[in-house]
C-alpha cells in the first residue's frame, strides 16, 4: 500500500470519534507503515515501541528491544538514574503524543486526540486496554555483545497500591544485580486517566 493511501485512510479515521480499542490498533499499525516507508522508525522510537507492542508479545530482533534492554542494564549496573529517566521518557504516553504531532505534521494530518487533553486520555485508556495482560518481552538480538546484568525485560500494565494505572518494567538478569538495586521500574500511564469516561 502506498503512502498516499495510508495518509487518506488515517485522515478518514481521524475525522471519526474514538470509540474502541480497534481504532487504536488500526491507527498505530497504519502510522507504523508510514514510518517504514520513510525509514523513520529510529527517529520515532516511542511510536515504534507501542506499534510493536500491540502486534507482538516478544521483541528480539529489533533496535528498540536492544535499546530498552541496554538502558535497563545501564541503570542496574551503575544505578544510573539518567538511564532510568531515559527509559521512562521513551515509553511515556506524553512522549508518544509529541512524536505523533511531529510526525503527522509532515503529512498535514491533524489527529484530534493530540490536541485535546480529554481525547488524548481516552486514546491512552483504549491503548492501555489493548496492552493489558500482554507482557512485552524484549531481549537482545546480538547475544555475542552481552550486557553486564540484564538478559531481557518484561513490560506489563498493572495498578499500584493507590489504584493508579502503571507500566511495570521487570528485568531478568543473567548476573545478579548489585545489592540494593531494584530490578523493577514503574512508569505512570497518565495522571487522572481513570476520570475519563469512554463512550
Q: Could you provide a short overview of the structure?
A:
The protein is α+β, with helices and mostly antiparallel strands and 199 residues long. The chain contains 7 helices and 5 strands, in the order αααβααααββββ.
What do you see in this structure?
- With 199 residues, the protein is α+β, with helices and mostly antiparallel strands.
- The protein has one domain (3-195).
- Helix content is 48%, strand content 15%.
- It has 7 helices and 5 strands; from the N terminus they run αααβααααββββ.
- A 5-stranded mixed beta sheet has the order 1-2-3-4-5, with helices on one face.
- Strand 3 (150-159) and strand 4 (165-173) form a beta hairpin.
- Helix 2 crosses helix 3 (45-55) and helix 4 (63-78) runs antiparallel to helix 5 (81-91).
- It is globular, with a radius of gyration of 17 Å.
- The chain starts with a helix and ends in an 11-residue tail after the last strand.
